[in-house]
Amino acid sequence: MSQATYCKMWADAQKDLDILLQKEREEFLQPETNLGKVSKMLATSYIQYMEIFRSLAAAYDHLIHRQKRAAIRPVLDGVMGRILEIKMEMVKLDNSECQYLDDILMELNRPLEDIEIPIPKYFIEENLEVLQQREKTLDEILLNAGLLEQKPVEAMTLPEAIKLIQVAERARQGRSRARFMKKIYLEEKRTTKQEEQTGRSPDDAATCIQKVWRGYVQRKRIEKMREEEMIFLGITLPPHLEAASSFQKFAGKGKALQGDVQERQDEVSFKDKLRETEGLHIKETLQDQLSQCFTECRHITGRFPDYPPEKAGGSKAIFSEKTPEQVAEELAAKQEAEKAEQKGKDEKEQKEQAKEKKPQKAGKKVEDEGWKMGPSNFLSILEEGSSQFKVFWQNRDNESDFLQDHDPELIKEGKREEVEEEIRVQVAELMEEKLRNLKLHVDGEKVGTQKKGGKAEKAGKASAKKKIPEMERDLTPDRTIDSLYQELAEGGLLIKAQAVNLSDYIGNYDCVRSSLRGTGAQPLPSAPDVRQLVALYGILPLGSQMVHENAPLVKSVLLAGPAGVGKKMLVHAICTETGANLFNLSPSNVAGKYPGREGLLMMLHMVLKVGKELQPSVVWIGDTEKMFSKAAPKGEEEANSKRLGKMLPQFLKALKPKDRVLLVGTTTRPFEANIGPFCKVYQKIILIPAPDYMSRFALWKHFILQNGGAFSSLENLSCLAQVSDGFTQGQILDVVQTVLSELRLLQMPRKPLRTVEFATSLARHIPVYKEEQETFEVWYAKTPLGRAWSTALAEREAEDGKVKKGKGKK
Question: For residues 589 and 645, what is the distance between their CA atoms, to the nearest angstrom?
């Protein structure tokens, strides 16, 4: 699609966003007691935000204009963050990670695919060079350490060698024959030339030249006429626009790297020109404003004012449009307010604690007021982005901008603020010195330097009294990040992530699950729900720094389910989609490395330090239930595992909102762990069941086609999906790869595939029985979210019972 199409897509998304923001101001800020209506409002906003997110992501990925991309980026991040906030509200309201959105989608006339979360390409593209260099470095370290398996050189068979020799010999014979024929042709041509030189007259030669020249002129004339006709019909562009068209065709591949470099150079030149042309005027204006303010303050108060400290805004406090009286009053009021705040802090805290001790009254107020949307960190960003779009981009003519060049006026506005800030700092130093001289010579005051040493010493003593947590101490101050990175890679703790995308997790929506809505059973996620939750809690926050800092913080995620449902694949997909480093702290991988408590502390410190410096990072713990096992440790390895499990809360506490580090645990037997500490470590728990019928149908079809097979009818696939009930994705893939061997693929043209072949191989695997699946569901009911679901269900049943009794009495 053309650039104009994506500009229109951006404009339509901004228009829909304005309507949605206005709707939120009217609905979400008003208390609502009907929880059903609240759930519908949240689900509708969630789907609409998802559509806006998809449009903005497509426009941002394909637009060439850097300034347009810079205008879209904060809005795109704000929409992502708003989706996470609404999802959190939906989880709190429903006490479940899975919501039934089928009815809302039908009302909005949207397909189920509209709630699939797109992954923005800029997560990888903007850091592509860094990621490629890091991958190359990791490969070299692993190869030198002998941890990277090289592809074995396959020996050539005898038929292949004979065929290769035959091809080379035939090629040699062809080349020799071509040389022989060329020699004969040149000899014949030489003889004809000699005959022409002796036999032709000058008139014949002139006629030949004229014929060639007239033919050349006529061909050029016809070619020009055809070009003019094509331009007239609108099939091709004029020559002066042809360069712009070719640039647009290949812009998606290179992302206009040369244009980006040229624009950066232009930005620097704009800044230098502004400094040369307007710098002197800005400096004189600021000095005149400060001098006038000093004079007026002395005329009113009888003395020169004190220069505002940097904490109070420095010279910015004077540059604001205020009178000298207001500036002097504000400086005095701030000093008094700071003293008053320190005295009144204790009284306010005591009052707040006294209010918190009355939960029953607070609960009644909440019930009376009803549900109300919590504060948002992204609405202000979205509103600001919408206003900037209306001012700068809404009425701009995009069709005439074929080259998609930058707008110099926008660059000047941004650079002018930077120039003013630089000059303000220089002027502040000069005027502060001038104020000291005025006080000394006019008022006779001696202004000494402020005693900052005492305050610094007190602050140093106060900070020294604070105890620094173990995980936040720098245990390796003398080592570089590269050396720590190399040690972790050589120790097998930093591994290479497999190139797997989230879309490779195959599965369709289960249309039958909506029938379980009235039974009161906890809804289990299907494959699309799993993809959605992994994208929301793992990929989007790790991919965007602004989203991670402002969205509801999720530091840890647990993927629980039977063996073969794709838990490890999802971990690698998170790393692939975000370009994150992958640290493997599984008990089996950590065994024998960094023994004792001090060793484990050093290991976690190194992982934390490297993960923060080279973020985003994913810390993966496979078989994480072993760290929280109910049984007593039998050996040193199990003792180290449990010791590491006790350190994980401190590890998570050391992670701040600015640190894009995610702890991901995978487990096949979560019911063997102590539920209390287990759930304290992992904030979000995603239970992944065995695939349903629709997902199994899609899996069989995808795996068979991927491995070179083909079915004559869909009835065979339907039969396989029915027979494989209870089998996991990994087992289905293993069956397909076993059946579709090289020999079987060669036999396919004369011997089509049959269902019996897959069923025979499938019988060798053990499925996930109903009892095992129920064990997972019982364990999930004991988690915080599962208990909240059970409590809410019991309250609804009690209310329904009261209503029925009341009707019976009547």
Answer: 14
Local structure of residue 371 (DSSP, 8 states): B
**Separation of alpha carbons 767 and 727, rounded Å:** 5
Sign of CA dihedral 191, 192, 196, 197: negative
Exposed, middle or buried, 279 (CB in 10 Å: 0-12/13-18/19+)? middle
Place of tokens 């060329």: 182
Sign of the dihedral through C-alpha 702, 708, 714, 715: negative
pLDDT digits (tens, 9 = 90+) for 396-409: 766 555 545 566 66
Q: pTM for the full model?
A: 0.74
Q: Retrieve residue 742's tokens.
A: 């090289």
* 344 token code pair: 């009144």
Beta carbons of 638 and 626 less than 8 angstroms apart: yes
- CA nearest to 559, candidates 579, 538, 587: 538
Q: What is the mean pLDDT of residues 465-493?
A: 84
Q: Which two tokens stand for residue 488?
A: 């972790």
- Helix ranges restricted to H, 466-558: 481-490, 527-534, 540-543, 545-550
User: How far is it, in rounded angstroms, from Cα 190 to Cα 39?
Assistant: 92
Which residue's entry shows tokens 């069956």? 735
| Angle made by CA atoms 628, 629, 631, in degrees to the nearest 5 | 145
Contacts of 416 (CB under 8 A, 6+ apart): 274, 278
The phi, psi pair for 165, rounded to 5°, reads -65, -40
CA distance 227 to 238: 9
Tokens of 797: 């049943």
| Close Cβ partners of 695 (under 8 Å, ≥ 6 residues apart) | 506, 507, 508, 510, 526, 527
Rg of the chain taking only CA atoms, in angstroms: 36
The pLDDT tens digits for 207-263 are 889 999 999 999 999 999 988 887 877 767 676 555 544 444 544 444 544 344 344
Q: How far is CA 292 from the centre of its chain?
A: 51
